[in-house]
Amino acid sequence: MRDDLFDLVQLAQKGDHKALEAIIQSFFPAIRSQRMNVAADRQDDLEQVIVETMIKKILSYDLTNSPDFTSFLSRYCCKQGLA
């Protein structure tokens, strides 16, 4: 998964929308599980915020310094209280 994810991030940063969607889909089980941590009327909002944040981070991630995006995203989510 690590190499696949690296390749997908690289493609997404070059404008490949299918690669971006594949990344988000691979994390969707974790995103969905976070919905249960908020009130029912806020679950869709939380999911949207997480996906929007992921997109921004995917597109701005510096692949030259650290190719382990999964660890980066996990650390980011923990800092934000999302994991």
From TrEMBL:
Which segments constitute the Helix-turn-helix conjugative transposon-like domain?
6-62
The UniProt entry, under Pfam families, shows:
HTH_16
Q: What is the name listed in the Swiss-Prot or TrEMBL entry for this protein? A: Helix-turn-helix conjugative transposon-like domain-containing protein
Originating organism = Paenibacillus borealis
